[in-house]
């Protein structure tokens, strides 16, 4: 370090200052450069990462060891006979220097060795778990920040909820996804009929989105067997795993929790109810005043007629208690994005879920879909989405409506964008931002959506 200091002083700019002023400027430049070199080391002392307390304990222990060694060396000085190694010991202890200077030198060397040892241990222990190019202090800082993040509950289902969770997990680990269990199609529907369990599809998607590292294991969890495999075609491996765990543990909710541990999930995924429910819709047909009833979540979009109302069978199922607990303890509740009638409303039609949302002191935000969903919300505006929720569960369920601003360059004119102009006169706070993904215009961009929600929370609860 001394050579580094002297080299910087020698290389400092000449001709700007004279005499003592020039020397002072050179020393200042040298000290600034040394502090800049050691700035990564000082990051370990940043507030909130939980290192300083253990470093302080280490220093106390090291000090006590030093005191003990000092007492032993002093005893040797006073009692040992004059031998050849006493002058060497005297030189090693720097007795030819003044006591204050010796104290400063030994303290500095001791601190350097303690810090170096701690850093070396951290690197040795954490290197198998760190991603290439990542530093221990960076990972620890991010981990502590997310541990103290706000408590967020996201309610919905389908790919929209998974997209939301994928973005929010970058801000907090205190995430809870409350997911519908009314799915009746695809792999989930087949497992529900054949095995008698709750449909695992939406829960599987959310678990994968919350995985700490969406690498090979997560892709394996999401793997779907292609056609041609007798008995397995169309099934997702994650659905089969959850089904197997439910059979082993005897509990569907325990199977979901164990799947989360396998995927190193930060947060939790909970069903809105543990009672098997079916989604039923009354749809409006031209020239038929009474309407037509469509049964089954997967059948509603296929009817291709305007939905008048949806409800659950059996009616008023009991909510899962852990979901109620999470909602009541949340700082931010996000409803959507997702299919209005087949992902969002099936959760809100569980009466205790809606009551808990109303009772919660959290900020409540409804995220409107970017584009109309064929066969379900054709020609719907943002106002139509809000009105449909109000007609099913009443007004005042949320305070903020977050909507997307479509691109102005006319990209992909085939997309039916959900317009937001007509909702401006409502009692809700309307926030319209660019939320679409440039690669998939009809879908939300997970990072933009999460960033906007966090900004809304900070602005309204700041």
Give a verbal description of the structure:
By secondary structure, the chain is an alpha/beta fold. The protein folds into 3 domains: 35 residues, no CATH class; 90 residues, no CATH class; 280 residues, Rossmann fold, CATH 3.40.50. It has 19 helices and 10 strands. Strands 3-2-1-7-8-9-10 form a 7-stranded parallel beta sheet, sandwiched between helices. Strands 5-4-6 form a 3-stranded antiparallel beta sheet.
Nutshell version of this structure?
With 462 residues, this protein is α/β, with parallel strands linked by helices.
Number of helices: 19
User: Over the alpha carbons, how many angstroms does the gyration radius reach?
Assistant: 32 Å
Distance between the first and last residues' Cα: 45 Å
Whole-number mean pLDDT: 81
Multimerization status? single chain
> What is the CATH architecture annotation of the largest domain?
3-Layer(aba) Sandwich
Structural class: alpha/beta
Secondary structure elements and pairings:
Layout: H1 2-11, H2 19-37, H3 39-42, H4 52-79, H5 85-92, H6 99-126, H7 136-147, E1 152-156, H8 158-168, E2 175-179, H9 186-195, H10 201-210, H11 216-222, H12 237-249, H13 252-262, E3 268-271, E4 278-285, E5 288-295, H14 300-303, E6 306-313, H15 321-328, E7 332-335, H16 340-348, H17 351-359, E8 363-367, H18 382-393, E9 400-404, E10 429-433, H19 446-461
Parallel strand pairs: 1-2, 1-7, 2-3, 7-8, 8-9, 9-10
Antiparallel strand pairs: 4-5, 4-6
């Amino acid at each position: 370090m001394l050579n580094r200091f002297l080299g910087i002083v020698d290389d400092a700019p000449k001709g700007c200052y004279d005499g003592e002023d020039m020397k002072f400027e050179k020393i200042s430049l040298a000290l600034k450069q040394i502090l800049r070199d050691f700035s990564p080391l000082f990051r370990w002392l940043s507030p909130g990462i939980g290192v300083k307390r253990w470093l302080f304990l280490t220093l106390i222990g090291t000090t006590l060891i030093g005191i003990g060694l000092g007492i032993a060396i002093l005893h040797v000085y006073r009692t040992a006979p004059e031998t050849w190694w006493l002058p060497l010991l005297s030189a090693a202890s720097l007795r030819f220097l003044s006591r204050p200077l010796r104290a400063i030198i030994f303290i500095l060397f001791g601190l350097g060795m303690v810090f170096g040892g701690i850093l070396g241990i951290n690197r040795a222990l954490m290197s198998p778990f760190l991603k290439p190019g990542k530093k221990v202090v960076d990972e620890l800082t991010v981990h502590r920040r997310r541990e103290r993040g706000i408590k967020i509950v996201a309610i919905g289902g389908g790919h929209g909820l998974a997209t939301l969770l994928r973005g929010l997990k970058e801000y907090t680990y205190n995430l809870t996804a409350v997911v519908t269990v009314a799915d009746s199609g695809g792999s989930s529907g087949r497992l529900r009929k054949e095995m008698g369990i709750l449909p695992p599809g939406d829960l599987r998607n959310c678990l994968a989105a919350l995985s700490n590292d969406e690498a090979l294991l997560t892709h394996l969890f999401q793997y779907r067997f292609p056609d041609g495999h007798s008995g397995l075609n169309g099934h997702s491996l994650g659905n089969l795993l959850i089904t197997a765990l439910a059979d082993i543990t005897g509990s569907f909710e325990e199977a979901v929790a164990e799947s989360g541990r396998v995927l190193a999930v930060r947060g939790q995924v909970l069903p809105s109810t543990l009672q098997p429910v079916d989604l039923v819709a009354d749809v409006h047909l031209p020239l038929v005043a009474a309407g037509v009833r469509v049964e089954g979540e997967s059948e509603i979009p296929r009817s291709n007629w305007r939905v008048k109302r949806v409800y659950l069978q059996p009616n008023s199922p009991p909510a899962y208690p852990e979901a109620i607990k999470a909602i009541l303890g949340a700082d931010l509740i996000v409803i959507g994005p997702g299919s209005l009638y087949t992902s969002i409303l099936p959760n809100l039609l569980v009466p205790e879920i809606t009551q808990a949302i109303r009772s919660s002191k959290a900020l409540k935000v409804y995220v409107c879909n970017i584009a109309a969903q064929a066969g379900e919300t054709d020609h719907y505006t943002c106002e139509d989405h809000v009105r449909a929720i109000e007609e099913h569960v009443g007004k005042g369920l949320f305070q903020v409506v977050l909507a997307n601003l479509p691109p102005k360059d006319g990209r992909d004119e085939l997309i039916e964008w959900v317009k937001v102009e007509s909702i401006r006169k409502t009692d809700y706070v309307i926030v319209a931002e660019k939320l679409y993904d440039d690669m998939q215009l009809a879908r939300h961009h997970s990072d933009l959506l999460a960033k906007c929600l966090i900004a809304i929370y900070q602005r309204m609860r700041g």
